[in-house]
Structures are given as structure tokens and as C-alpha cells.
Amino acid sequence: MANSTVQPASATTVQNPQPATTLQAPGGPFRRYTFPGSAPMYSVSGQAFGATITQALVANSSYLRRLRVQFVASGGSGTSVAGTADAPFNAVQQVVLQDANGTNIISLPGWEALYLLPKINGSFLGWNYSDPTTLPDYSAIAAGSGDFTFSSVVPLEYLAGGIGCLGLNNAAQLPVLQWTLGSAAAVYSTLPTTEPTLTVSVDADTYLIPDNVNIAPPGLGSSRQYKLLNGTPAVSSTTTLPTYFPAFGGGFIDQLVFIARDAGARTDAAWPNRLKLYIDGQLLAQPTLAELEAEFEVAFQTARPTGVLVFNFRNALSQFNTGLMDSAEAYVSTTPQSVIQLGDNWNGTANITAIVGQVIPSSAMITGVTGA
Fold it and tell me: pLDDT tens across 115-153, in order?
């Protein structure tokens, strides 16, 4: 065998960073040029139960992804104070988030907006950690005072890459956030002797406006809106027809949430053994109750709240709800006249409400995995 000579590899040199090379080349997606930021919006203290808070948000050079909120009830006193089933999140009676033109993006009761949505929305919290009561600052209602603390999120971004964000850079055209606080009687089953007052703090999670390229989030003006619909008629064990929900304005449905309440308390007793979902009179799905309960646990990897069932269409890529990482290809297209029905053979007495999670695109619907 002939001897071979190994030639030494040529020396390779690398470059030190230069100012001109630290900028991304143009032509990529928005997410490549921005940076996730945060900013304080406001903190108001001494708020009594039943108050309305309309504090203005603060302008800065960014796009709003979501609002982080904290409620602290302090200064109460009493003996054997106890909370109701939806407490402390029902310390907020109603949450309303609007764009600068007054279009409702979220309009929901406090428990639905601040406890239920984080469990299923996927825009911030996820899976086993989606329950706001697992956050480090959570403190349940104290028996000796009625004091409590909880944090939550109010989401806007619904697909990765900034889709659904709102601009914060124009002080004259800012989103509007309004809180209507609940009554003490709604929060406490046994009232404190001295009612606490509430401190409400709001921070913004943002994407900073890029300063080196003229680029905005894709589909700017698109939104994921949540509406609460009341079903008619109320149901009972003799009801054999679907309950009906009025037209909700149309859009692309990504989640349908149904909540059963009897005398205000959430209950599973009324659900049929097989649920039939109709949209525009078409039978879309008819899972058994057991199947739908199991699908919640699989999709969201967290415990299903009593009285709540979800038809989830954010599963084009996985049987799990993957939050912002979805392709939007399984959303259900509807029209402004579309109506929803749920039935049929009910097992008990309840009022049924529906939360419609619907995407309203600014132009063409964006699909596929975005932000790459």
C-alpha cells in the first residue's frame, strides 16, 4: 500500500462583530426584527367592590400582545370568611377590552375571562401551568380577613408572529380596558366584617416597533374576539330539543365553550349523555359526554372546570392545544347570520351560555405556521 500524505487544513479566520453586521437583512417576517418587551400601564388602589375602573392605557412604541393583570384585596377583617365557587375571580363582574374605535375584542364576566380563558386560550399560560391558581402570587380567600391575590392575562395575540396585536404608539388611538368589579355578596358566601379594598395593576407584554425596517405584524387589524351568548330556552330533564344561541356576527370559530349553571352555580348534572353541536342547522359533531370530557383533558392538559365543555378547533397540528403554534386551518367558517345550537336530551335543569372564540381577519385569513 502506498503511503499517503495528509495535507494540513487551511487556516480559517472568523470576524469580530461590526456595527453594520448586527442588523437583520430585510425581507424576513416581523418576528425576526422585533423584540418582546413589557411596560407598566397603571396601578389603582383603594377600589371598593362594585366600582368601575376606566384608567387609560399608556402609549409606547410597541404592539400590544397581551395585558397582565393582578388583583389584590387587602385590609379586610372577619371570622370564618368563605368564598363562592367562582371566587376570587368573580371579584370582577365584567371585563371589556376594545380597540381604539370601540369594537369589543373581549367582553366577558370575570371568572370566564380571568380564570377560564387562560386555561384554554394558550396565548400565555399553558397546559399544567395554565391554571391561574398555580401562579406564585396566588392567595386564596383568607378565612380571617377575606383578603386574596390573583393574577391573570387578557390575551390579544392568537398565532405566533404577532397576529392579533394592537398598536400602542398613538396616544390618541389606544385600546380601552374597562373593569366592572363584582359585589362582595357575589365573591363571599360568608361576608367579612370589614370588606377589603382592591388594588388593580395592569402591565403590557409587547413587541417593540422595529427601528431598522418598515414592517408591522402580519394581518395587522386582525383580532381574536370573545363573545358571551345566552342560550334559549333554559333546559331541564324534559328538554329534548337543542338550546339556541343567537347570531354572533360571523368569523372563523377556533373554540366554542359551553357553560351550564343552575341558580348561578356551575353544574355538570344537566349535560346530555351525547351532545350534538349544530352550526347553521348542520350537525357538526355529536360526541358523548365522556368523550368531550376526555378531549378537554387531552387538549389542554389541565383539569376541566365543573360545568364547562369545549369544542376546540385549534388542533390542526396536534391533538394538544399548542397555544400560539397553530396553523388556523381547522377553524370553522361562519357568516354574520350563523347560529349555534347544542342539544339534545338534557339530564337536568340549567341555563347554558356559550363563549364564541372567533377570529376576524383584517383581509384574507392567515393560515399556516407563522413567524418563521
Answer: 999 999 888 877 778 899 999 999 999 999 999 999 999
The pTM score is 0.91
Q: Are 153 and 68 in contact (CB under 8 A)?
A: yes
- Top-tier CATH class for 31-208: mainly beta
Average pLDDT of the chain, as a whole number: 92
What are the structural domain ranges in the chain?
A: 31-208, 223-360
- Of 176-190, 273-287, 307-321, which range is least confident? 307-321
* Domain 223-360 in CATH 2.60.120.20: yes
- Please classify residue 267 by burial: count the beta carbons closer than 10 Å to its beta carbon, then call 0-12 exposed, 13-18 middle and 19+ buried: middle
